[in-house]
Design brief:
There is one protein chain. The protein has 435 residues and is α/β, with parallel strands linked by helices. It has three domains: 168 residues, NAD(P)-binding Rossmann-like Domain (Rossmann fold, 3-Layer(aba) Sandwich), CATH 3.40.50.720; 161 residues, Dihydrodipicolinate Reductase, domain 2, CATH 3.30.360; 85 residues, 2-Layer Sandwich (Alpha-Beta Plaits), CATH 3.30.70.260. 36% of the residues lie in helices and 24% in strands. The strands form two sheets. Strands 7, 8, 9, 10, 11, 12, 13, 14, 15, 16 and 17 form an eleven-stranded mixed sheet that branches. Strands 3-2-1-4-5-6 form a six-stranded parallel sheet, sandwiched between helices. A hairpin with a 4-residue loop joins strand 9 and strand 10. Helix 5 packs parallel to helix 10, helix 7 crosses helix 8 and helix 13 runs antiparallel to helix 14. The protein is elongated and about 80 Å long. The mean pLDDT is 94.
Length: 435
């Protein structure tokens, strides 16, 4: 029976999970693959930590070059993360003719165009299912299952930390700070949660999804990104009263000549299945011209879910090796020569519905001044709600608008903020899925 040898770079959470699956499910994998997957080398800076795995002699090394330079290794799994040493090691492995499996969404979002071109020139594959959505087969679904579809849009919850925090605030009424602290205590959030709560982790994943959905170069820098740190329990409570949930969504749409790609807190109606995805779970909806709307749901991170995706990629590459082929399925869904740079639509050009919260002095004429400025910018008000309870001495005013252009509502809010009756910066949340 053919033996395919793999090497692992990084024995952290995901690298350890991959090893566990290889050791625990080796016979099952062999019966499905028709070949034996053998771990030849595994590199990590910490060789003393107990990972609950008994490695065979000679497998562990502190030198990653022993993995990428080993002539007997066919596939290298990069599980280090980051954009420095990981990039150098991947390039070295590619230069040595090795196929790559990676969970490194940050590296792919920033350097992916170069890495994929380099791999194609060398005749090897880069597989990256674990980089987006954990165990959800979102990459495989778009690249293979929906290969005959024109993708109109993708919307998804792609960060478990943010979803956990928003779910805690929604379901228990706790503060943002308390929800974040609990997420950190349970291991759902890093000690420095900036990448998660400010939306950058989600943007990395959206950049990758937009590329494979539309055949465009990966373009992280043009994605609009806004995090959840300014969302309050008051906003969530009001959204609930109006039939909405607030989620941090990754949204990409093809407009015909440009791509709308953005990450921000979004109000979605209860009828949207994404509104009921709670805790640290992820979910993605895809709209294709042949299939209509479909949804994937599952654990977006964690040792075993992400390792499962990495093993899936490894087996796909191994199947190609068994039959003497490579990149049978294009790495980015489209043939490399067909990938182009499709422009990204600036956030100012989108049109959607909006929720706006103002803090205003309690006096006559406040509403007329606000609505007058909104009207001057062609923004039609759908509903207005004012509570008698004051917050920090001011009266909160909640408004929902009909569809309006982003540029106009931003201009209007700038003018409203300058009024002496407004005591704080207005809060704006975009609404999706409303007619």
């Amino acid at each position: 029976m053919k033996e395919i040898k793999i090497g692992i770079l990084g024995l952290g959470t995901v690298g350890t999970g991959v090893t566990k699956i290889l050791y625990d499910n080796g016979p099952l994998i062999m019966s499905r693959l028709g070949a034996k997957l053998t771990l030849k080398k595994a590199a990590d800076i910490d060789l003393q930590r107990d990972r609950g795995i008994k490695f065979d002699d000679g497998i562990l090394t502190a030198d990653p070059l022993e993995v990428v330079n080993d002539p007997k290794i066919d596939i290298v799994l990069e599980m280090i993360g980051g954009e420095a040493i990981a990039k150098d090691l991947i390039l070295k492995a590619i230069d040595n003719g090795k196929h790559i499996v990676t969970a490194n969404k940050a590296l792919l979002a920033s350097q992916g165009n170069m890495l994929f071109k380099t791999a194609a020139e060398k005749g090897v594959s880069i597989a990256f299912e674990p980089s987006v959505g954990g165990c959800m087969p979102i990459i495989k679904t778009i690249r293979e299952s929906l290969v005959g579809n024109s993708i109109a849009s993708i919307s998804g919850i792609l960060n478990g930390t943010c979803n956990y925090i928003l779910s805690k605030i929604t379901n228990e009424g706790v503060s943002f700070e308390d929800a974040l602290s609990e997420a950190q205590a349970k291991g759902f959030a890093e000690a420095d949660p900036t990448l998660d709560i400010e939306g950058f982790d989600t943007a990395h994943k959206l950049a990758i999804l937009s590329s494979i959905a539309y055949g465009t170069e990966i373009n992280l820098n043009e994605i609009y990104v806004e995090g959840i740190s300014n969302i309050t329990a008051t906003d969530i409570e009001f959204a609930d009263q109006c039939g909405y949930r607030i989620k941090l969504l990754a949204i990409t749409k093809f407009t015909g000549n440009a791509i709308d790609a953005r990450v921000h807190p979004t109000m979605i109606p209860f009828s949207n299945p994404l509104s009921n995805v709670n805790g640290s779970l992820n979910a993605v909806t895809i709209s294709g011209d042949a299939v209509g709307d479909m949804m994937l749901y599952g654990h977006g991170a964690g040792m075993m879910p992400t390792a499962s995706a990495a093993i899936s990629d490894t087996i796909d590459i191994a199947r190609d090796l068994i039959y003497g082929t490579h990149t049978r399925v294009p790495m980015l869904s489209f043939q490399m020569e067909q990938i182009e740079k499709i422009p990204t639509q600036p956030i100012e050009e989108i049109s959607t519905h909006y929720y706006v919260r103002f803090s205003a002095i309690d006096q006559p004429g406040v509403l007329s001044k606000i609505s007058g400025i909104l009207g001057d910018h062609q923004i039609s008000i759908k509903s207005v709600h004012q509570t008698e309870q004051k917050l920090n001495g001011a009266v909160p005013i909640f408004m929902l608008t009909h569809q309006a252009k982003e540029a106009e509502i931003q201009k209007a809010l700038s003018k409203i903020s300058s009024l002496d009756i407004i005591t704080d910066t207005p809060s704006l949340i975009r609404i999706e899925g409303t007619n």
